[in-house]
Amino acid sequence: MTSYLRQKLQSFQIGSSPSDSENVKQEEEEEPNCENRDEIEQSKIGIVRALVQAHDPSFKDVDDLMIRRFLRARDLDVEKALSMLLKYLNWRKEFVPNGFISPSEIPNDLAQNKLFIQGHDKTGRPIAVVFAARHRATSVDEFKRFVTFTLDKICARMPSGHEKFTAIADLEGWGYVNSDIRGYLAALSILQDCYPERLGKLFIIHVPYIFMTAWKMIYPFIDKNTKKKIIFVENKKLQSTLLQDIDVSQLPEAFGGKLTLVPVQDC
Fold first, then answer.
1. Rounded distance, CA 131 to CA 51, Å?
2. How far apart are CA 104 and CA 67, in angstroms?
3. S-S: 32 plus which of 2, 36, 232, 239, CB 3.0-4.6 Å?
């Protein structure tokens, strides 16, 4: 964070009375009730918004929900959330200059026919399904564009009032030819740093033993909030586990449900 923004942040803090600061700290430590927590969040959203606009007036269209997601991703720490949000906004301006990724920019990844979006879980979250054994490493830049394209598609399908999605990663048939650690880490970085608080739950199914070698390399880079959302499902409990969160009418046919999967590019 620049020294200018640090001074602006300090000015917000100085503007609060000592008793207010102590109360906020005490409330956070004592897990405030919903009403107080909402008030604290809303106050911090206002601070972050002012600091973002002070940094770059062109970022004036950032909405409250986005700011709140970045705050929650950093446990309501204003300085950390602001740094994360500014990094994202600058990345978006540079990496997605047209505001979207075109299918023509990711032909190799789309040709693998590995990612689909269809249905909603019981809370209304859209469902994404990836077949990992269809993945072959492309250039890291193309794969980053593919991940961004996919996440934008998923977010666009979220019903009003929803900010998260559910994902199913099917690893049946996965082997070393599919192992793409650089690509996996790039995807993880984009998800965590650029789309925080978007993943609601990730079911990893049909896990081959060989995959755990790659998992051990990836796991240290997964933040604590994301780790809580990952569920490895036993084969014998596959359908019963998925049906706890997804109605059979919304479950893909591949997993015993009734929906036909739709490729991400056709959504």
1. 41
2. 31
3. 36
Tokens of 226: 């994301």
- pLDDT for res 11: 53
Tokens of 149: 């394209």
Q: Mean pLDDT for each consecutive 10-residue tract of the chain (267 residues)?
A: 56 45 42 73 93 88 93 95 96 94 97 96 96 97 98 93 96 96 97 97 97 95 95 95 96 92 93
Instruction: Tell how many helices (H) and how many strands (E) occur in the chain.
Output: 11, 5
Q: Please name the fold of domain 103-266.
A: Phosphatidylinositol Transfer Protein Sec14p (3.40.525)
Cβ partners under 8 Å of residue 141, min gap 6? none
Domain 3-95: give its CATH code: 1.10.8
Work out the angle between the directed axes of helices 211-218 and 181-194 (0-180°, nearest 10). Answer: 40
CB 186 within 8 A of CB 143: yes
133: nearest Cα among 240, 202, 214: 214
Entry pTM: 0.85
